[in-house]
Specification:
Strand content of chain A: over 45%
Order of helices and strands of chain A: EEEEEEEEEEE
Radius of gyration of chain B: 14 Å
Helix content of chain A: under 10%
Mean pLDDT of chain A: 93
Number of helices of chain A: 0
Number of strands of chain B: 12
Strand content of chain B: over 45%
Shape of chain B: globular
Oligomer: heterodimer
Order of helices and strands of chain B: EEEEEEEEEEEE
Distance between the termini of chain A: 37 Å
Distance between the termini of chain B: 41 Å
Low-confidence stretches of chain A: none
């Protein structure tokens, strides 16, 4: 069974630009969550999508947005990039029902903002 | 607010030693889930174990064992006879069941385990 796939693995962008990251969940998983990992703040929850709807949201500014497609694939967008957005962005998928199934993570996209 | 504390920033052991990673959590929820994840240099977080707040039975799985104690709000993880391949950063995490799923996790800061020959 294929795991969670994130593309691209690495990105270098300039301040002020925008970026879109992609995540393909494990087959059968309907929930996709996004996390930001930085040395200073650690792992922080961004948002979760389930059945194409945002179900939960963390404490990030509106520049961070996402969406989920009917095949459960998800994209995350960051607009007007800032230096502090440099991080490893991890996507995770789960069945997403009420059973509190564990998250399965991808390898992440490492974003560098210069 | 939920909080997870991993006081050990980095641990170095020699192969075959046993090592215990500590995790202390804070939550006002009576129902919650606790997790351990491992992050090797490749970057992905690998799920190791999940425990719910009603299941204090400790478990052994191969070289791994877990000790969950609600009385002290601790969920410690032990690797027996460590191996070089165990070198990674280990994260303890707590779920916010009020959101209806376990997707919103509060992570600890992680413990870097270095196993040398």
């Amino acid at each position: 069974k294929a795991g969670v796939t994130q593309t691209p693995r690495y990105l270098i962008k300039t301040r002020g630009q925008q970026v879109t990251l992609s995540c393909s969940p494990i087959s059968g998983h309907r929930s996709v969550s996004w996390y930001q990992q930085t040395p200073g703040q650690g792992l922080q929850f961004l948002f979760e999508y389930f059945s194409e709807t945002q179900r939960n949201k963390g404490n990030f500014p509106g520049r961070f947005s996402g969406r989920q497609f009917s095949n459960s694939r998800s994209e995350m967008n960051v607009s007007t990039l800032e230096l502090g957005d440099s991080a490893l962005y991890l996507c995770a998928s789960s069945f997403g029902g009420t059973e509190n199934s564990p998250l399965h993570f991808g390898n992440g996209t490492r974003l560098t903002v210069t | 607010a939920q909080k997870v504390t991993q006081a050990q920033t980095e641990i170095s052991v020699v192969e075959k030693e046993d090592v215990t990673l500590d995790c202390v959590y804070e939550t006002r929820d009576t129902t919650y889930y606790l997790f351990w994840y491992k992050q090797p240099p490749s970057g992905e977080l690998v799920f190791l174990i999940r425990r719910n707040s009603f299941d204090e039975q400790n478990e052994i799985s191969g070289r791994y064992s877990w000790n969950f104690q609600k009385s002290t709000s601790s969920f410690n993880f032990t690797i027996t006879a460590s191996q070089v391949v165990d070198s990674a950063v280990y994260f303890c995490a707590l779920s916010d069941v009020n959101t209806g799923t376990a997707s919103k996790l509060t992570f600890g800061t992680g413990t870097r385990l270095q196993v040398t020959l």
